[in-house]
User: What shape does this take?
Amino acid sequence: MNRRPIRPDLAQASRRRFTQALAAGTALAGLGGLGACATPGAGSPPPTKLLGRVLVVGAGFGGATAAKYLKLWGGDSVEVLLVDRQSQFISCPMSNLVLGGSRSMADITIGYEGLRRNGVVVVNDEVLGIDAAKRRASFNKIADQSFDRIILSPGVDMDYATIRGYDAEAQKTVLHAWKAGPETQALRAQLEAMPDGGVFVIAVPLAPYRCPPGPYERACQVAWYFKKFKPRSKVLVLDANPDIVSKAGLFRKAFNDMYKGIIEYRPNHRVTELDARARTVTTELGEVIKGNVLNVLPQMSAGAIARKAGLVNANNRWCSVDWMTMESTAAPGVHVLGDATLSAPAMPKSGHMANQHGKAAAAAILEAFNGRAPVAPMMANTCYSFMDDSQVAHVASVHRYDATKKTMEAVPGSGGLSSEANALEGVYANMWAKTIWNDMLS
Assistant: This one.
């Protein structure tokens, strides 16, 4: 693929007329001729041929990356509209550190100005519906639009109905905080208000779910906070799984050594019911457990917009994709990224992996616009986990496309796992975060 640099003057002009057309409610189909009507000045290069228009829904690790690389690699040959309900990016990776107290929300919040500078049209709006067959979307604020391709990076939604009592009223006080933002701040406030000697209960759902090591890192972060400021308090981990899902040995060591007497881990304890007023949860074996602060993570599935678009076609929870292109197997021309996908073997639902999905989708779409076959992708992943504010461990993997199995397979001997948590990896983890945020958003 010819990855030529974007001329800033052309990118700015393209973005300006795209934004003006959206503001005026003009259908995107009419934008193609706008540049052709202008008379180039002497010595000006001929206008770039517009090959296609792409809608990206969701500006997280997957969507923001896809939007940026479509413009980086496609330049003025592609127009990209990125829509998200949030006006800023808030990172789920690193958000557990806000609960522990070593980071603030400002540390994990980044604006979308960098994407706009790259020529992406970023709109703070909500996509109300998608007609996958027509590749047409309806919005809350702007006019309905049709596109050549649509990318969905909707993340996950919580299946509250899988836990009795987890109704709208209970959700006001029993928080999952699995989408970084206001709930992260609210859960931190609950921990601060909890009396010393209280119990923080975190309920972990059956895998798969977003970020396999995330609940165990959260337990460590809360325990670290308790150890310093509320030493008589406890963390109780009720895990629906038979064992710690990711980095089991490393987390078990942290639980038993760093937080002995603070963290209690109970496997095979699936929470099926909760009582928000009594602050109790009930397991499938009928055991009733009381806590001062309840952090209940229900079963998860692809974000609601994917279901509304008819793209949830695996286990009634996830979206199956063609791993060569990240294209939905339910709707040609619509691509799905990140946690919403039915994961390939050994592939985690992580921010880093969503970033890789975004690049694979951008490359495949531009190849299609240029009449070329897609190139088989290779993807890498790294997940860092903070045991306290500086001691960190990682797990890494590399995945390549297997044409026979038509899926991504882990490359034998690739990747790795920390032998122990240490401060040097804490430095690496912080640099990883800054690097991937820059890769997505700058």
